[in-house]
Design brief:
There is one protein chain. This protein has an 8-stranded parallel β-barrel with strand order 1-2-7-8-9-10-11-12, surrounded by 4 helices. Strands 13-16-15-14 form a 4-stranded mixed β-sheet. Strands 4-5-6 form a 3-stranded antiparallel β-sheet. It is elongated. By secondary structure, the chain is an alpha/beta fold. Helix content is 41%, strand content 16%. The longest helix has 15 residues, at 451-465. It has helices at residues 2-10, 21-25, 46-55, 67-72, 115-125, 141-145, 156-169, 184-195, 219-228, 245-255, 264-268, 281-294, 299-310, 317-323, 328-334, 338-350, 364-377, 404-415, 451-465, 471-476; strands at 35-37, 59-61, 65-66, 74-78, 83-87, 94-99, 106-111, 131-136, 174-179, 201-205, 233-236, 259-262, 385-388, 421-427, 430-437, 440-444.
Amino acid sequence: MLRQYSKFKALGFCLHFHTCPTMKTRQRLDYSNKLILAPMVRVGTLPMRLLALEMGADIVYTEELVDLKLIKSIRRLNPALGTVDFVDPSDGTIVFRTCAEETSRLVLQMGTSDATRALAVGKLLQRDISGLDINMGCPKEFSIKGGMGAALLAEPDKAAHILRTLCSNLDIPVTCKIRILPDVGATIDLVQKLAATGIAAIGIHARTRDERPQHRPHPDVLRAVAQAVSIPIIANGGSRDMHKYEDLRNFQRECGAASVMVARAAQINVSIFRPEGLLPMDDVIDKYLRLCVDYDNAPHNTKYCVQSILRELQETPRGKRFLQCQTLQQICEIWHLGDYCRRKQKELKTLGNSGRAEVEPPEAQAKRRKLEEAANAITDEYTNVICRNMPFLRSTYPNSDHLPKTLLYVHAGREGKTAPAYETQQCDKLFRAICTFDGQRYSSTFWEKNKKQAEQGAALVALLSLGRLEEEPLRENGSLLN
């Protein structure tokens, strides 16, 4: 507990949360001569950022987080993890999680197309980060349609207005990340216009909006830009030729840049930041998984990042077994970290960590009370709903014949009973079902992401209650949480 308290104290939390004393004394982030973990969707979450810092990165960027998502989130302190969590109130998922170990070296990248909204988010976040970056280079359709990312390259006045608004009103440095334009002169003009807003640095991907990783980068363009402005230029886009630490510095020198930013090469092996050389793949995965356990990282996000490290090894027997995993526990077992995961999760639960298993969306409590009242209004035969906390994990069922609903349906037929019936309730983006079978109602208290999974969870409770399944195997594979 003392260690967790120390983490919180380091973050500057005090009895009164209205002010943050560390904001005024925090050293301003310097973007010169730095090795930087680039913003990467689904990769730049807390465990990977912390591992990058451990491996030698000087600055780490979050994945791109959209302003609309952030502004709706609720900021919560998490004493069990020693983190600050920004939570989506509709389903309890973590939009952004950070901790004291990274605060002084953390830049949040935001997707935005509106200066007022961007400023509101900046003010909400600035106590928990050391820099704010605006994405002006992403060519993905989602960003373009929303007027974000590379769409801002076509609206330099709007882009400059967003940056100027942030620079004038925030206490932390502001940067942006762009792609080069087809014309070198136009690129220089754009960067000079953006630099004049007061930004601290500018990240430049050395390809145009329409070019992809298979195209060669254009370091000569970055070199020309770097000579034309006084703020630090952060070179990006050289991953295809980056296989070791020295390659990062070579690309930086080739571009004439103040710093270098790495994406795909770090996604494959984040130890590329180590001057001493790359670590073996399994050592990187081991370190990464321990951080995922320590900070209760979402299993689907953990799985995605490990997939990025494994690459073609996903086709090996171990890789195929890994692809079937749905829980953090299942993933950890493959790398012999099962005991560590169980022990740590038990410790975090004792400290009060509330994970997805305890999520109950807004209005769900009121709906639950109404449901209980409705059940109590019926005859005594249907008064009780048997509840267990049982998520449905599809990977634990090798084929459709073994799914809980199928097993319960077959059981009903063999016993000459009426087939089970299901009713589902939805709260925001989460679902919970009640299975009625042989005069009894069953439900899982775990809120699922869709109706079908909720029904499978209710059937699972019924099968366990009827003695058709044993508790111990369900606890071991993560299907029974209490």
